[in-house]
């Protein structure tokens, strides 16, 4: 910045010199044409050598002036050359400065001034902007409600975290849905120097519900009006953002703008970049009153303490009541009311430069806000069309948005060195647990995975569930990765009841899944499927963590613990609901077994009855599950008895038994030490037996495993000797833990293992 200013001063000095020297010269010449205070005529007649006024002295003076004129011309040429050099240096310096600024925004620069929050790259001022202290906390308020907004706000947060160098405190005005989703997300994200506070949006509805609103944001689009009342009384200032915002710079630069507010300025806003408030978009278009083009409220700087002193609450309410008498409703939610207040009180506004809210709706003047990448600060997708908006440069903006949309959020867990942060109990416990592990242990990576905290986004898609009045509902629980997405539609066709799925995906894969689901008529027609994204981290597939996530977030009293590769028989959902009543599952510890079969054919005419299944079993089209490779896993089901059974029958636990069962919601979780392939279900069934669950086989239920390529984890198990050694070690440790927890009753597991 200092280099730019010096260059500009040189440029200015050279320019003034270039103008000043010729001017002085001509004044001198003109003055030299006076004699005795009178102008001397320079007419050809009077300048003749024979003129009486022509003397030897004047001849010498004129010759001297001619010499001086030639010298001046030489000086001018030299100055022009110097000026061109100054210009070229200044241009290259500015380009270099832009490049340096961009690299520092990427986190690789070392400029102390930028780190302190100096606004750079867009200002024409040579003086520095007011600084933001290194460890000063920046407060951000966001209204977020529902499943879609909870998904959108993550991209905004990623863009802020990517550029930030200061502690952040997010104030989230959220409904119950958004709070559940975002509380889990931030708790498992564990980003240092980030604090989250929630405020119940449902409690604020009464404050704004009296205002009719046509905007697609609904009642939540009015809640920014009540932030002075909602946020803590000791909070003096806050940046308010819409969820469809993307940051392209450090938010500290925007925070620094608060220092520019003067007098009674309490609102920092960017001018609206469309003609909406001019009232000329269509015939009889009648917008709310606004000052000129009005202001867009996607980005707001609020001086809360001054607003409270000005009685903001009373101010906006009186304005809204007055305007609603003629306007009847708002079209742009809170933005209409903010503008109506500003129309009456223009002194309240500090107008932000337009690059702090580049608005990408149809028919905007946003192109006038930017000339190149360095001009972009905040991008606002303020059209219902979002990424499909019409804009000449929409591909560039879309790519910038997609960068953060698919960016690995785990990489944003960066420490802010030198800034004290509040003690996080979860983080401290995690560090303590990891410190107790022996890094030289050959099974260290297996043990570490047990304590890894995976970022989790619950209910990634819209979810609706109405509880059954008879309290017999059953949720199908399963987990999957990207390579099993093709099973979702088939399962939804076979199971009409609620489903809880945990998907192990990267950030980019989560977006692929979203596009896949939104393009599927089958999946979009089902609102009782809960999709919970567990983001990838580490080298193992955390199969039991995924199962636990899916189990924990069911809405029914019972659950069917299945796997994604199985298709349940048609009608199994209703059959299980009847079975839980008949077998009194509500009052007894039972695990109802659904017998498992498999086919080696990718195309299968699915049996519609038990009789048809038995016929296919006899013909060799179907087999009992893993009959050829792992008989012990399902042998205790007693398939021979099942063939003729008409009533449920009890079976005993045996070593390596791993059936698929229906249990109550309160059954124990899966043991997280087992990752990848091997013993993950076996250990769970063993624990159910230790807790005295009764295993009961259902006579008219079945499920069929569909063929697929071997998973990466089973390949590692088969090819890696150390993998198998570590799995054996973990099994032994699990059995020892069982003995400690269940005492003498658990000795049979050690005996059974030794005999198997």
From TrEMBL:
One of its GO terms (molecular function) is glucuronosyltransferase activity. It holds the Pfam family Glyco_transf_49. It is found in: Golgi apparatus membrane. The keyword Glycoprotein applies. The chain crosses the membrane at residues 12-31. Signal peptide: none annotated. Keywords: Glycoprotein, Glycosyltransferase, Golgi apparatus, Membrane, Multifunctional enzyme, Signal-anchor, Transferase, Transmembrane, Transmembrane helix. GO terms for cellular component: Golgi membrane; neuromuscular junction; plasma membrane; protein-containing complex. It catalyses: 3-O-[beta-D-GlcA-(1->3)-beta-D-Xyl-(1->4)-Rib-ol-P-Rib-ol-P-3-beta-D-GalNAc-(1->3)-beta-D-GlcNAc-(1->4)-(O-6-P-alpha-D-Man)]-Thr-[protein] + UDP-alpha-D-xylose = 3-O-[alpha-D-Xyl-(1->3)-beta-D-GlcA-(1->4)-beta-D-Xyl-(1->4)-Rib-ol-P-Rib-ol-P-3-beta-D-GalNAc-(1->3)-beta-D-GlcNAc-(1->4)-(O-6-P-alpha-D-Man)]-Thr-[protein] + UDP + H(+); 3-O-{(1->[3)-alpha-D-Xyl-(1->3)-beta-D-GlcA-(1->](n)-4)-beta-D-Xyl-(1->4)-Rib-ol-P-Rib-ol-P-3-beta-D-GalNAc-(1->3)-beta-D-GlcNAc-(1->4)-O-6-P-alpha-D-Man}-L-Thr-[protein] + UDP-alpha-D-glucuronate = 3-O-{beta-D-GlcA-(1->[3)-alpha-D-Xyl-(1->3)-beta-D-GlcA-(1->](n)-4)-beta-D-Xyl-(1->4)-Rib-ol-P-Rib-ol-P-3-beta-D-GalNAc-(1->3)-beta-D-GlcNAc-(1->4)-O-6-P-alpha-D-Man}-L-Thr-[protein] + UDP + H(+); 3-O-{beta-D-GlcA-(1->[3)-alpha-D-Xyl-(1->3)-beta-D-GlcA-(1->](n)-4)-beta-D-Xyl-(1->4)-Rib-ol-P-Rib-ol-P-3-beta-D-GalNAc-(1->3)-beta-D-GlcNAc-(1->4)-O-6-P-alpha-D-Man}-L-Thr-[protein] + UDP-alpha-D-xylose = 3-O-{(1->[3)-alpha-D-Xyl-(1->3)-beta-D-GlcA-(1->](n+1)-4)-beta-D-Xyl-(1->4)-Rib-ol-P-Rib-ol-P-3-beta-D-GalNAc-(1->3)-beta-D-GlcNAc-(1->4)-O-6-P-alpha-D-Man}-L-Thr-[protein] + UDP + H(+). Gene3D superfamilies: Spore Coat Polysaccharide Biosynthesis Protein SpsA, Chain A. Residues 44-58 have a biased composition (Polar residues). Pathway: Protein modification; protein glycosylation. Residues 43-62, 90-110 are annotated as: Disordered. It comes from the Eukaryota. It is a single-pass type II membrane protein. CDD domains: GT8_LARGE_C. InterPro entries: Glyco_trans_8, Nucleotide-diphossugar_trans, Xyl/GlcA_transferase. This is LARGE xylosyl- and glucuronyltransferase 1. GO terms for biological process: acetylcholine receptor signaling pathway; astrocyte differentiation; basement membrane organization; behavioral fear response; blood vessel development; bone development; cardiac muscle cell development; connective tissue development.
């Amino acid at each position: 910045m200092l280099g730019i200013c010096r260059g500009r001063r040189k440029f200015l000095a050279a320019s003034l010199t270039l103008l000043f020297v010729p001017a002085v010269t001509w004044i001198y010449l003109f003055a030299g044409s006076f004699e005795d205070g009178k102008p001397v005529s320079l007419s050809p007649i009077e300048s003749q050598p024979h003129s009486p006024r022509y003397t030897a002295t004047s001849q010498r003076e004129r010759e001297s002036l001619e010499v001086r004129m030639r010298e001046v011309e030489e000086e001018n040429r030299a100055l022009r050359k110097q000026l061109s050099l100054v210009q070229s240096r200044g241009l290259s310096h500015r380009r270099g400065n832009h490049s340096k600024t961009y690299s520092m925004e990427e986190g690789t620069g070392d400029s102390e001034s930028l780190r302190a929050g100096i606004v750079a790259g867009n200002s024409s001022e040579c003086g520095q902007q007011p600084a933001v202290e290194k460890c000063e906390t920046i407060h951000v308020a966001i209204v977020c409600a529902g499943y879609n907004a909870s998904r959108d706000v993550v991209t905004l947060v990623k863009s802020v975290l990517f550029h930030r160098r200061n502690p952040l405190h997010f104030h989230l005005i959220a409904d119950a849905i958004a709070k559940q989703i975002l509380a889990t997300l931030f708790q498992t994200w564990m980003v240092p120097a980030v604090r989250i506070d929630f405020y119940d949006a449902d409690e604020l509805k009464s404050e704004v519900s009296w205002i009719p609103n046509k905007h697609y944001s609904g009642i939540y689009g009015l809640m920014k009006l009540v932030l002075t009342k909602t946020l803590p009384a000791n909070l003096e200032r806050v940046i308010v953002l819409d969820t469809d915002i993307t940051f392209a710079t450090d938010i500290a630069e925007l925070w620094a703008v608060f220092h520019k507010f003067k007098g009674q300025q309490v609102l920092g806003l960017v001018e609206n970049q469309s003609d909406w408030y001019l009232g000329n978009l269509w015939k009889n278009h009648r917008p709310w009153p606004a000052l000129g083009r009005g202001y867009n409220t996607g980005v707001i700087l609020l001086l809360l303490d001054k607003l409270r002193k000005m009685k903001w609450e009373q101010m906006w309410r009186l304005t809204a009541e007055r305007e609603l008498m003629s306007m009847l409703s708002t079209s742009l939610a809170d933005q209409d009311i903010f503008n109506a207040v500003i129309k009456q009180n223009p002194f309240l506004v500090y107008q932000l430069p337009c690059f702090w809210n580049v608005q990408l709706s149809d028919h905007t003047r946003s192109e006038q806000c930017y000339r190149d990448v360095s001009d972009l600060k905040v991008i606002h997708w303020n059209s219902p069309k979002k990424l499909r908006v019409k804009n000449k440069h929409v591909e560039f903006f879309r790519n910038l948005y997609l960068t953060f949309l698919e960016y690995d959020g785990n990489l944003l867990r960066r420490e802010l060195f030198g800034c004290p942060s509040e003690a996080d109990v979860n983080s401290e416990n995690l560090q303590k647990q990891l410190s107790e592990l022996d890094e030289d242990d050959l099974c260290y990576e297996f043990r570490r995975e047990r304590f890894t905290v995976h970022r989790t986004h619950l209910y990634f898609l819209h979810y609706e569930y109405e509880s059954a009045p008879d309290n017999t509902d059953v949720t199908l629980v399963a987990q999957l990765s990207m390579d099993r997405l093709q099973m979702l539609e088939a399962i939804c066709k076979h199971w009409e009841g609620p489903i809880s799925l945990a998907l192990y995906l990267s950030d980019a894969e989560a977006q692929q899944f979203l596009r896949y689901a939104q393009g599927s008529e089958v999946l979009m027609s089902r609102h009782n499927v809960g999709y919970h994204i567990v983001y990838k981290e580490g080298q193992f597939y955390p199969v039991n963590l995924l199962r636990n996530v899916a189990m924990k977030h069911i809405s029914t009293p019972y659950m069917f613990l299945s796997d994604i590769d199985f298709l349940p028989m048609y009608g199994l959902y209703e059959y299980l609901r009847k079975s839980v009543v008949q077998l009194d599952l509500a009052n007894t510890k039972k695990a109802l077994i659904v017998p498992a079969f498999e086919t080696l054919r990718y195309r299968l005419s699915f049996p519609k009855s038990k009789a048809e299944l038995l016929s296919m079993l006899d013909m060799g089209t179907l087999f009992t599950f893993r009959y050829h490779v792992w008989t012990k896993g399902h042998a205790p089901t007693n398939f021979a008895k099942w063939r003729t059974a008409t009533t449920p029958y009890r079976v005993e636990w045996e070593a390596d038994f791993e059936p698929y069962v229906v249990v109550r919601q309160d059954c124990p979780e899966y043991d997280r030490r087992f990752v990848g392939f091997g013993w993950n279900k076996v250990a769970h069934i063993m624990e159910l037996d230790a807790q005295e669950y009764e295993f009961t086989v259902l006579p008219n239920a079945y499920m069929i495993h569909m063929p697929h390529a071997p998973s990466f984890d089973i390949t590692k198990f088969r090819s890696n000797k150390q993998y198998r050694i570590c799995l054996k070690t973990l099994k032994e440790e699990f059995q020892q833990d069982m003995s400690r927890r269940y005492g003498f009753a658990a000795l049979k597991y050690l005996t059974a293992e030794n005999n198997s």
